[in-house]
């Protein structure tokens, strides 16, 4: 279970991109003030950083969060904090960096490459909660949890394209198109994902990831032999690609009208020690950019949140689902 509070995430640190189907909670910040935290330096993944985080949490949090048994999600309370613990997933910073493949477009470049939509002309009442899984129950990929394996392809399994930039990837879908696929285990479609689901330093239902780092495969313009549809005929394209204005109302309208969106955020060293509760950056340096997917929002005890999904297989968090508490988001590159 992952829950996060991001205090002071500016547009250059937090970009969101539209996507078709997802699962995971992303919290909306409504705090009028935040606690000023002295950023001490500790060895990542060490007992010292874990002890510091937990001591800091105790100082600033009492009865911070509750549990929603209907969805297996922790619910954020005002001033809520989180618990750190030794993680089986990461044995070193290199383990984490391998999974951080998301990169950001410069804001001005994003605006230049594609138009920005705010949906101000759509006069609709925004419900207090919205879940794309319930709105589009026949879209099975909304509830699908991906596993990027030992590869920094978080942004790829959440959309399409190459190079780590989410916006140009959506543009690629519109201009060039992509073929069908699935996980390596299902092995269906034209080009299934080439890397297997695996366990990162923990026992589970999948094989161990091992030490091999998977690199981006070369582009192939052929389908797997068992697939009967030719590559060119199997391509699917979006109608157009555009940015969504960086305000909650525009993002909510976008999700209600066209479906889930995608986001990237900066992962810090303390996040690697996350165990439970509501994550808020306390200490540590940036590790890299990571992409996640957003499917809706809700409110629990006057606390609004976004619902989001990760790509580290079902063993991460509660079936790879969590809640985040954030300051602002930018949604962009929505293909239709």
UniProtKB/TrEMBL annotation:
Pfam families in alphabetical order: Peptidase_C1
Domain (Peptidase C1A papain C-terminal) ranges: 126-329
One GO term of the biological process aspect: proteolysis
InterPro entries the UniProt entry points to: Papain-like_cys_pep_sf, Pept_his_AS, Peptidase_C1A, Peptidase_C1A_C
SUPFAM superfamilies referenced in this protein's UniProt entry, alphabetically: Cysteine proteinases
SMART domains: Pept_C1
Domain of life: Eukaryota
One Gene Ontology molecular-function label: cysteine-type peptidase activity
Similarity field: Belongs to the peptidase C1 family.
PANTHER family associated with the record: CYSTEINE PROTEASE FAMILY C1-RELATED (PTHR12411)
Protein name, as recorded: Cathepsin B
Organism listed in the record: Schistosoma bovis
């Amino acid at each position: 279970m992952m829950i996060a509070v991001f205090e002071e995430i500016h547009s250059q640190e937090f970009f969101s991109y539209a996507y078709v189907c997802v699962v995971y909670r992303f919290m909306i910040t409504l705090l009028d003030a935040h606690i000023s935290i002295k950023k001490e330096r500790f060895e990542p993944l060490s007992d010292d950083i874990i002890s510091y985080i937990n001591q800091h949490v105790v100082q600033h949090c009492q009865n911070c969060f509750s549990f929603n048994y209907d969805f297996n999600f922790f619910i954020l309370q005002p001033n809520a904090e989180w618990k750190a613990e030794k993680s089986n997933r990461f044995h070193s910073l290199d383990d984490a960096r391998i999974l951080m493949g998301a990169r950001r477009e410069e804001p001005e470049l994003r605006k230049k490459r594609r138009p920005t939509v705010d949906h101000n002309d759509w006069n609709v009442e925004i419900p207090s909660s919205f879940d794309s899984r319930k709105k589009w129950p026949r879209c099975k990929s909304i509830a699908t949890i991906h596993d990027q394996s030992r590869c920094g392809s978080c942004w790829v399994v959440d959309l399409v394209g190459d190079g780590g930039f989410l916006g140009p990837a959506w543009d690629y879908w519109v201009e060039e198109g992509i073929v069908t696929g699935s996980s390596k285990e299902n092995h269906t479609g034209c080009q299934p994902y080439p890397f297997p689901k695996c366990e990162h330093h923990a026992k589970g239902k999948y094989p161990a990831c091992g030490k091999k780092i998977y690199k981006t495969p070369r582009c192939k313009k052929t389908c797997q032999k068992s697939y009967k549809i030719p590559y060119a005929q199997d391509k699917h394209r979006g109608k157009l690609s555009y940015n969504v204005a960086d305000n909650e109302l525009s993002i909510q309208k976008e999700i209600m009208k066209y479906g889930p969106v995608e986001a990237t955020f900066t992962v810090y060293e303390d996040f690697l020690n996350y165990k439970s509760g509501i994550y808020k950056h306390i200490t540590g340096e940036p590790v890299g950019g990571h992409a996640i997917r957003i499917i809706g929002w809700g409110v629990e005890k006057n606390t609004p949140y976004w619902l989001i999904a990760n790509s580290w297989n079902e063993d991460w968090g509660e079936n790879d689902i969590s809640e985040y508490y954030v300051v602002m988001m930018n949604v962009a590159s929505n293909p239709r």
